[in-house]
Records
---
Amino acid sequence: MDKRKRTRFLVIIGCILAVLLVLIILTGGSKEEEPIRVVMKDAVLHEYAKINFLGIMHVNPGLVAAYTVTGIIFGFALIVRIFFIPKFKDIPGRFQMLLEQAVGLFDSLATSNSPHRHRFLGAYVFTAGAYIFIGTMFELLGIMVPTVSGEAVALPAPLADINGAISMGVISYCVILSGGIAGNKFKGVLNTLKDFSLPISMSFRLFGALLSGALVTELVYYYITTSFIIPVFVAVMFTMLHALIQAYVLTMLTALFYGEVSGQEED
Amino acid sequence: MPLNIDPQQILLHMFNLVLLFGILYVLLYKPVHDFMDKREEEYRQRDQKTKDALSEAEKLKGDYEDKIAKAEKDNAVLRADVTAKAEADREKIIGDAHERADRIVNDARDKAQKEHDRMIAQARQEITEYVSRAAEKIVMKEGDLEDDFDSFFENMSDKE
C-alpha cells in the first residue's frame, strides 16, 4: 500500500468513526431512564438490584461475586495442585517462580511483622491478599447476571459490597485476636480489644476505597460522551491500583497488628 | 438496617472467606511453602556439608603442616648430627693423613739419612782402602813406579 492509498484509507475510516460517534451521541440522550442520583445510590447500597442466591434467598450482587471469585480461585488452585506442584523443580520455571514469589511475599510480610509466630498469619494474609486482588480485578470481567426484577446487572467486586467489606474487616480482627490469645493469653486479648475500632476502620477503608473506584467508573459510563477511551484508563487503571493498594494495605495492617499483640513484651 | 447491612449476608461472606482460606491453604499455600522449606533445608544441609568438609580439610591441612614442621625439625636435627659427624670424620681423616704423611716423611728422612750415612761410610772405606793400597805399593816397589801408576789408573777405570 503506497502513501496515497494509505491516506485515503485512513480518511475513510476516520469519516466512518466520526459519523458513528455523532449518531451514538445523538441517540444516547433518550436512554437516561434513571437519574444519576439513583444510579449512584444503587451502586453504593444495592437496595434494588437483588439476585436469587441458589433459590434460597435474595442477596446483593457482591455476595454472588464473592462465591464466584472463590469458585474461580478454587478451580485455579486445584489445577495448580494437581498438574503443576508435583512437577516443581529446584530451579524454578516462570510459573513456579510466580507462585513462589506470591507465597514468599506474604510469608516474608508475616515473618517480618511477627517473627515469633507467622505460619498461620502468612497463610491468612496470602488468602486475604489473593481475595482482595482477584476479587477487585474480577470487576473488570463485567459478568452479567439477572436480578430478581428481571434486569441484568454486572457483578461488582465482592468487597464493594458493604457486607463483604465488614466480613473481611471482622475476620481480620478475629485473626489478630487469635494471635493475641496464642501469644499472650489474656493479656493478648486485652491488647487486641484495646484497638476495638480496628474492624470498623478496616471494613470501611476497604469499602470506601473499592466503592470510590466503582462510583467513578459508574459515573464515567453514565454519560455517553465520556464512554469512549476514558473508561479504558479509568476502569482498568483504577481497578488495578485499588486491587494492589488495598491488598497491600489490609494484609500489611493485619500483619502489623498481629505481630504487635502476639509478641512477647520485653521486661 | 442502614447502608443495606445484612447480618446474614455478612455471615455468608465470612463463610466464603473461611472456605477460601481452607482451599488456598490446603491446595496452594502449604504445598508451595513446604516445597520452598524443603528446598531451603536441602540447600542449608548442602551448605553445612560444604562447611564441614572445608573445616575437615582445614584440620587436615593443619595436621599436615604440623607434620611437615615436625619433619623439618627432625630433618634439621639429623642434618646437624650428620654434619657434626662428617666434620668429626673429616677432622679425623685429615689428622690421620697428616700423621701418615709425617710418618712417611720421617721414614723417608730416616732412610735418606741412613743411605747418606751408608754412602759416606762406604766412600770413607773405599778411600781408606785405596789410600792403604797406594801406600802399600809405594812402600813395596819404588822402581816399578811407572807400572804401579799404570796399574793404579787401570784399576780406577775398571772401578768406574
Note: Chain B touches chain A through 31 residues (CB under 8 Å).
---
Amino acid sequence: MEWMAWTLPTALFFVAVGVLLSCMTVFELRRPCVERRGFLPLVTSRGDRLFIGLLASAYLHLAVIGASDWPLWVASLLSLAWLVVVLRWG
Amino acid sequence: MNKVPNNKAWWLVLPVFLLVAFSAVVPMMTVVNYSVQDIFDASNRYFVGADWYRQVLRDPALHDALLRQFIYSGCVLLIEIPLGIAIALTMPTKGRMASVCLIIMAIPLLIPWNVVGTIWQIFGRADIGLLGATLAKLGVSYNYAGDPLDAWVTVLVMDVWHWTSLVALLCYSGLRAIPDVYYQAARIDRASGWAVFRHIQLPKLKSVLLIAVMLRFMDSFMIYTEPFVLTGGGPGNATTFLSQTLTRMAVGQFDLGPAAAFSLVYFLIILLVSWLFYTAMTHADKE
C-alpha cells in the first residue's frame, strides 16, 4: 500500500465514504426507499439525494478553497449541514 | 404465483465490481493521496493540505483552458448532434446502398487519433495539402499554424469529420428500431415529414441521443491527441485544452501534486456536466 502514498486525512476520508455507502446499503435493504419530490426540482431516490449532496459538497469545498481565504473546516461544516438538509428534505 | 425475492443474484455483480475497483477506484484513491502531498515518489513526500488545489483553482492559465474547453465541447455538440441525426435520416434503409453507407460512415471511426491529426495537418498545408492549397488558389487566407481562428476551425472540422459518424450510426440504429406501425399510423393521419420527426422519430431516439451526447461530451472534453498533433496547442495557447495543460503539468514538469489536484477538479467537472445531461434527458420520464 506504500505505493498509494496514503496520508491519515485521505485514509479517514475514504473510510468515511465507505462507511456512508455501507450504511446507505443496509438502510436501503431494511427500508427500501420510495422516489419522491422535495425542494429539489426533480424526483429523486435516496441514492440520488446522497449523490447530489456529495457532489455539491465537493464543489462547495472547491469554491471555499478557490475563491476565499476561509479555513477548510468551514466548508466541511457547511457540507455536512447541506447533506443533512438534502437527504431529509431534498 | 408468489415470487420470493432473492438477492443472491447480486453476487454476479462481484466480478465487475472488482474490475472497476482495480481499474478506477484504486487509481483514483492514489490520485487523491497525491493531490494533498508534495511528492516525487512514494518515499519523498510531504503533506501540504489543500495548497495544490488552491494553486490550481487560482491559476489564470487553467481558467483560460477551461473556458476554451467548454466552448470547444459546446461547438462539437451543437454541430455533431444535429448533423448526425440529419445524416441518419437520409441514409438508405434497405438494399446494397445501406451496407455501403454503413461502411463509409464507419471508416473515420477506425482511424487512430494521432493519424487523424497527421492527416489534417497535411490536408491543411498550403504547399502540399489539398484543403490548404485549394484555399490558397481561391485567394482565401488560411493558416492554421499562425491564425487562432483558422486553428480553431480546423480542430473543430477535424473533430466533426472524425466523430459525426458515431452519432449518425447510433441514430441510424435507433431509427431502425422504430416499429413500422408508428409510420403507418402517421400515414393514416396524413402527418407531415416534420410531424413524423418531431412526434415519432425524435422521442424514440431519446435513449440513443442520450448516449451520443454523453459520449461526445466526455470525449470532446478530454480531447488531447488530435489538437496536439495538428497545432501543438497553438498558435500561442489558442488550442491548448485542459488535457494538454494537465499532461504538460504531469509529464513535462513532473508536478505530480498539482497535476493530481487538477485531475480531480477535471473529473468533478465531467461528472457534474454528465450528470446534468443525464438528469435533463431522463427527467421527463420520471415526471
Note: Residues 60-90 of chain B form the longest helix (31 residues).
